């Protein structure tokens, strides 16, 4: 195997000069750099990534901290980050914090990141005070996705606006008996989205004077299986909601499955709406509020690269991407108000919320 010493000998320069020439450091004359590159090419020399990182202080890795990796949202964000980074020669180092139970997570530790990454992108995880102190002491650039953390630039949607759009739509169809899927235990302190979406649901119902019934609130782990299991009790008796608002499309899939197991027609007997526009939502004919998940990852990756290349990225940068209502066949007016043409399949149509500026917020109206 050719070594850097072999290249130095062939080019008639020192090992340090070869290192500087191959890294593009300015303190090498063009003629010397050309001679070094020619020697390296002739000898088929490939620099060791580990050795290069020791010399440059850069690993070319970006730590992506996620509460879950095996869920569609987080995997899609990571895909967007990877696409933004790879053309610049950087790669993702995944740090999965998933624990044994939904309401707990692993801590962010120094061993995950120290001398392994040049920056950190955090997905929907509010670090606690100790973790925040660790990240600040490490001096790495940090970007957050999914929620706003003071002092770090962020990319997200307005979760409350997204939920408000969903609820306003079904209220506009005439629904007043509305259930909710997506409440989580108060111990789930490592995720902000469930609380923001539930708060918006409560606010819209209160604004319309609609009764918010605790027995129609489903607490689950934000999976399709979990929502299906908990939705069984909604549909077991005669006192049923005419609509279920799910805080994610995956939970909406579970609700639709439970409804059909109980012999209920969607949307004839019960309407279902979600948030996300999951990759399978069109197949399930699910009405939803769409967010561009992969774009959030791409934007976060671009912010990280800007910081690594020395461009000024304000710590108050808050990039709020727009959302849009996508109407499909899982929603209709309540049965007593429905006309035949309204309870059959309809073409998809969308309603868009305007995108906000980097420092603004989405103003979504149904």
From TrEMBL:
Ranges for region Disordered: 328-366
Q: Name one GO molecular function term.
A: DNA binding
HTH lacI-type domain: which residues? 2-56
Alphabetized, the UniProt keywords read: DNA-binding, Transcription, Transcription regulation
Which segments does the entry list as coiled coil? none
One Pfam family, short name: Peripla_BP_3
Ranges annotated as biased composition (Low complexity)? 340-359
Q: What is this protein called?
A: LacI family DNA-binding transcriptional regulator
UniProt organism field:
Pedococcus aerophilus
The upper taxonomy is:
Bacteria, Bacillati, Actinomycetota, Actinomycetes, Micrococcales
């Amino acid at each position: 195997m050719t070594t850097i010493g072999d290249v130095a000998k062939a080019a008639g320069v020192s090992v340090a000069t070869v290192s500087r020439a191959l890294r593009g450091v300015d303190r090498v004359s063009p003629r010397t750099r050309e001679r070094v590159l020619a020697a390296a090419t002739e000898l088929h020399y490939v620099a060791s990534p580990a050795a290069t990182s020791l010399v440059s202080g850069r690993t070319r890795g970006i730590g992506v901290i996620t509460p879950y990796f095996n869920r569609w949202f987080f995997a899609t964000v990571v895909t967007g980050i990877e696409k933004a980074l790879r053309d610049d020669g950087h790669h993702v180092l995944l740090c999965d914090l998933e624990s044994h139970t939904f309401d707990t997570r692993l801590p962010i530790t120094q061993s995950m990141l120290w001398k392994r990454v040049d920056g950190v992108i955090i997905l929907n995880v509010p670090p606690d005070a100790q973790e925040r102190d660790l990240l600040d002491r490490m001096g790495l650039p940090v970007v957050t996705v999914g929620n706003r953390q003071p002092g770090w630039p962020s990319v997200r949607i307005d979760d409350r606006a997204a939920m408000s759009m969903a609820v306003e739509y079904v209220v506009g169809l005439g629904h007043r008996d509305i259930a909710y899927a997506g409440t989580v235990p108060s111990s789930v302190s490592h995720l902000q989205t469930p609380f923001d979406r539930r708060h918006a649901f409560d606010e819209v119902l209160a604004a319309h004077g609609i009764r918010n019934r605790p027995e129609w609130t489903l607490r689950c782990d934000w999976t399709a299986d979990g929502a299906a299991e908990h939705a069984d009790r909604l549909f077991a008796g005669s006192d049923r909601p005419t609509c279920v608002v799910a805080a994610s499309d995956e939970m909406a899939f579970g609700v639709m499955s439970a409804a059909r197991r109980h012999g209920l027609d969607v949307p004839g007997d019960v309407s279902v709406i979600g948030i996300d526009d999951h990759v399978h939502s069109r197949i399930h004919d699910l009405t939803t509020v769409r967010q561009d998940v992969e774009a959030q990852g791409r934007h976060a990756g671009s912010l990280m690269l800007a910081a690594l290349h020395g461009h000024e990225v304000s710590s108050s940068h808050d990039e709020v991407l727009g959302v849009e209502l996508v109407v499909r066949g899982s929603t209709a007016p309540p049965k007593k108000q429905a006309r035949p043409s309204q309870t059959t399949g309809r073409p998809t149509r969308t309603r868009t919320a305007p995108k906000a500026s980097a420092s603004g917020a989405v103003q979504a109206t149904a």
